[in-house]
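Weekly puzzle thread! Below is a chain. First person to post its structure in token form gets bragging rights.
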Amino acid sequence: MQLVISHQTTYQYSLPSTYTIQQLRLTPRIEQHQQIIHWEVQTAGNKTAFIDAYGNQSHTLTITGAHSAISILAQGIVDISAPAYGRISDAENFSPLVFTVPTRLTEASPAIMAFAHQALPRNQSATTTELLDLASKIQMTVAYRSGTTIVTSTADDALSMGLGVCQDHAHLFLACCHVRGIPARYVSGYIDPETSGHADSHAWVDVWAQDADYDGWVSIDVTHARLMDDTYCRLAIGRDYDSAAPVRGVRRGGGTETLQVSVRVTPR
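Winning reply:
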């Protein structure tokens, strides 16, 4: 499968901003099952490439001088093959235990602890089937509804409301796994909307599965309770949204901010 992707992010300010710095994780990861055919990130300002702590292809964007808008366009073509049984070959050299540490967005409340103990039968071990079952339980407990949460909403917020989006499903899954001591990490990226019915920009998880024939990462789309296949393009991994967000930064001045995001993903 080849996916043609266009991701336009536009910030507009009511007053001039004098300085902006942003981290961009808008370039697909270099992994065994996905290869970049062509990719570019276009924006004004000074753009410096780097690899972040989780191996994500990243840029630091700085804009100095008065500006009332910022436009960032990431686009290209990515060739993707489906990983067998959702199993991800990880080239990173750090321990998966890095991804057992809760964050502000994935901290376990008493309600999450109770949910995790009911949904996952054991500590520090789960099969792919059991992890898919957890995804199904989250899907049934937290209904998908766009606009019900924001980027600062926590896993507990989503569980309390019973509503959320893909980011919330991923955070709740991570929180449950952390309760049980199972490594799990956040994935940001894109999905072919023809296969999902949801937004082209997407979030899901990698989780450490222990099957009879395999110990390692398995990539699960919690929102759809299914394994990742060749309709998904992976941008970044991290502990949660904050460490894998496509665009994140700060500015000086600017007054009120208006953000518009447009994503198109089409199979080629």
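Puzzle host: Confirmed. Bonus trivia for everyone else. The longest strand covers residues 57-80.
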